[in-house]
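Methods — Computational structure assignment.
A single polypeptide chain was analysed. Its primary sequence is given first, followed by the predicted tertiary structure written as C-alpha cells.
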Amino acid sequence: MNNEVIITCPVTGAGVKKDKHTNVPVTPEEISDAAIEAAKAGAAIAHLHVRNPDTGQACNDINLYQETVGLLRDKMNHQGIDVVINITAGMGGEFVPDATNPNNGGPGTDMLNPVDRLKHIDLTRPEICTLDCGSLNFSDYAYVSTPNMLREMTALIQKMGVKPEIEAFELGHIWMAKQLMAEGLIDAPPLFQLCLGIPYAAEANGETMLAMRNMLPEGANWGSFGVGPTQMAMAAQSVIFGGHVRVGLEDNLYMERGVLATNGMLVTRAKEIVERMGARILNAEDARKKFNAIKQV
C-alpha cells in the first residue's frame, strides 16, 4: 500500500459538454478557478485541457492555454495556493476514417504533427505534461500516436525540461514507454498514469490494474484512475497496490447516481477515502520532489 498519496484532479477534459453538467469549466477563468478549487480540497496536481469558450468543445488554441495558465499562476500567487500544473499533450491524435475513402480523415478527425501537439507546452512550460504512449480505439474514433511520433515528442519534452506523465491505456503502451526509456528519451524516474475504463482499451478493474502495475519499470512512480462510476473504487485500489490517485470531472460527473459533482467534491471524497485507509495526502511541493517535476515559471 502507498502511505503517501498524491491526488491529481483533471478539471475539465475534452469530452463532456456543458449542457450535460453545468459545473464543467469551459472558459479560461472557469478552468483556472477549478484548479484552485481542487487544490483547496487537497489535490497536489491540476490536469488541464482548454475548450472553445463559445462552443464548449475541446480545442488546441495555444492562446487559450497561455491565458488559462497565466490566470492560474496569478491566482496561485495572489491567494497563496500551490498546485502542480499538468497540461495535456494528447490533443491532435483523433482519426475517423472517411466513409468513402478511408485513407483520408472524415468528420471528427483532428490530427497534428508532434511539434504542433507540443506548442502550448513549450509556450507555458508546466511542471508536467501528459504523453499518450501509443495508439488505441478511443470510443468511436482511433487515437493515433505512432512510435516515431512518440520518439519526436519525448525528445522535445525532454529538451523543454518538462516531466512527461506517461498515460498508458493498455499494456503495449507500457512496453513502448520502456523502449523510449532504453533509448534515453524519458528520464528516470518515469511517471505513469494507468488509464482504465476508456472504451475500448484496458477495463477498469483490479485485475487489469495489477497486470499493468506489474509491467512497470523498476522505480517508476505511478497512479491510476477509472472513469465513470468506477472512479472512487479505482482510487482506493490504486492506493492499495502502491499508486497515486486521480479524480475529477474529466473522468466522472457524479458523486453518486443522480447527484452531480464538482471537482472540489470529488477531491474531498477521494481524500477522505485515502485518509480513512491510513495514508497521508501529499502537497504540491511534495509532488514536485517525488516526481522530479521542475517548476520553471
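Note: The longest strand covers residues 163-168.
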